[in-house]
């Protein structure tokens, strides 16, 4: 890529998550990272005020609207990479992906909108291959911990047993955090898309819906939707709200890698709720709450009341104390044909709330890799594990307080 004015443009720095990513980039550059970066968005005053509050008035501002293709093409031409926190992506993100694919500009985001990722891959992967643009969706809590967690466990399985695990189950064992207004808007928008558009509904419901054409078959079925007692968790489990995103990303990773874990490889996610009757009661409560949220989000008047009175609005989210008090722990349990009857277990742990404190750092690190590193993949549409794999496994513990370790 020819020399460009910036290494990275952070698109949406005035939003709740964008501002946190800006803070992360400032910490990294203050510690000596040689990153030439700018913030971008549609409101110069808001962006200038945020830079001022962060003590970073020297960071340049680039202006544009997410529905102005000319401004976005110009923005994409000025930088090696773009990091986008402007969502719901299905509403505000498509023209930017098109501009990046067309201009050979690397791109990453935080989307968990499977139907939109499917549309972007179908529309822009071919052009990105021609121009050399690396496009990487889902670089937040969905789906970096799942995607890199499974990649890490399989790497360790190969080192230990000489062969990969035939199945991996991820259990959420601890998760403390809250939603922002942008995330709520994205979930509600995805519910609308599933109701209105059969193609979107199909992409979301298909367990291999993000895989390349001709590679959408495998042994995995629908995501867990009821309480289940799971032998690998040694306890009761409930459906996990992000499973319908994360499992699709992990399966796409597997397909893009060329199916190294075997065509019969299985992957699933759920929440561990503990043993005995209390575990069953918790699993039932989580299942009921999820069902109630989906029902309320799909019915007009209930949705209006829930959204206005109970949920955060765009720009709002957990405050700093809540983000710092948050944390998460995921347990990935692998079964390996070389060690029948034994479990290989990896833990992914994060120090801050998963959706914002940890997500902003994970996205920031993904963006830095795209902007500055000579990655092993060419232009195209990649997943976090296929684009960044070993590199992020090294960097996330050091710079995002997200760790990956094997359990004894
Ligand atoms: N995957 C994960 O783990 C994860 C975690 C957190 C968030 N997210 C996702 O990240 C996205 C952002 O969430 P958030 O809570 O940070 O949202 P937010 O606070 O509502 O911020 C939205 C941003 O989009 C900008 N924007 C809206 N319309 C625009 C337009 N037409 N042109 C240019 N910019 C525009 C806003 O600019 P103004 O300030 O000018 O209005 C703002 O900067 C959501 O899609 C959410 O689901 C994902």
Walk me through what this model shows.
By secondary structure, this protein is an alpha/beta fold. The protein is 48% helix and 19% strand. The strands form 2 sheets. It has a 7-stranded parallel beta sheet, with helices on both faces. It has a 7-stranded mixed beta sheet with strand order 8-9-10-7-11-12-14. The longest helix has 23 residues. The radius of gyration is 20 Å and the shape is globular. The structure holds NADP nicotinamide-adenine-dinucleotide phosphate. The site of NADP nicotinamide-adenine-dinucleotide phosphate (NAP) has 35 residues, from α1, α4, α8 and α14. The site of NADP nicotinamide-adenine-dinucleotide phosphate has 35 residues, from α1, α4, α8 and α14.
């Amino acid at each position: 890529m020819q020399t460009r004015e910036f290494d990275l443009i952070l698109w949406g720095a005035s939003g709740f998550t964008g501002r946190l990513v800006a803070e992360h980039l400032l910490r990294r550059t203050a510690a000596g990272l040689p990153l030439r970066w700018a913030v971008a968005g549609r409101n110069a005053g808001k962006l200038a005020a945020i830079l001022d509050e962060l003590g970073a008035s020297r960071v340049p501002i680039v202006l544009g609207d997410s529905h102005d293709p000319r401004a976005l093409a110009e923005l994409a031409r000025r930088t090696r990479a773009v990091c986008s926190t402007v969502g719901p992506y299905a509403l505000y993100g498509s023209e930017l992906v098109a501009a990046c694919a067309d201009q050979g500009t690397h791109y990453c985001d935080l989307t968990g909108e499977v139907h939109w990722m499917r549309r972007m891959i179908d529309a822009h992967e071919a052009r990105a291959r021609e121009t050399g643009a690396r496009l990487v969706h889902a670089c937040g809590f969905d789906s970096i911990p799942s995607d890199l967690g499974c990649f890490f466990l399989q790497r360790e399985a190969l080192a230990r047993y000489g062969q990969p695990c035939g199945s991996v189950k991820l259990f959420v064992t601890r998760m403390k955090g809250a939603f922002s207004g942008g995330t709520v808007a994205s979930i509600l928008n995805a519910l609308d898309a599933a109701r209105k558009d059969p193609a979107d509904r199909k992409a979301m419901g298909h367990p291999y819906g993000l895989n390349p054409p001709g590679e959408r078959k495998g042994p995995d079925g629908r995501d867990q939707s009821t309480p289940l007692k799971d032998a690998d968790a040694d306890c009761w489990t409930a459906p996990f709200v992000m499973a319908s995103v994360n499992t699709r990303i992990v399966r796409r990773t597997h397909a893009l890698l060329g199916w190294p874990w075997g065509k019969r490889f299985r992957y699933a996610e759920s929440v561990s709720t503990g043993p005995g009757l209390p575990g069953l009661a918790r699993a039932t409560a989580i299942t009921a709450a999820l069902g109630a949220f989906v029902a309320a989000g799909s019915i007009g008047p209930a949705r209006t009341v829930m959204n206005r009175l109970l949920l955060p609005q765009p720009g709002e989210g957990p405050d700093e104390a809540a983000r710092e008090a948050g944390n998460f722990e995921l347990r990935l349990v692998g079964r390996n044909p070389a060690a029948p009857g034994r479990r290989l277990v990896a833990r992914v742990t994060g120090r801050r709330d998963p959706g914002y404190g940890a997500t902003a750092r994970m996205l920031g690190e993904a963006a830095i890799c795209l902007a500055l590193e000579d990655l092993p993949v060419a232009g195209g549409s990649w997943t976090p594990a296929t684009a960044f794999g070993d590199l992020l496994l090294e960097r996330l513990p050091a710079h995002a307080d997200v760790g990956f370790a094997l359990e004894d």
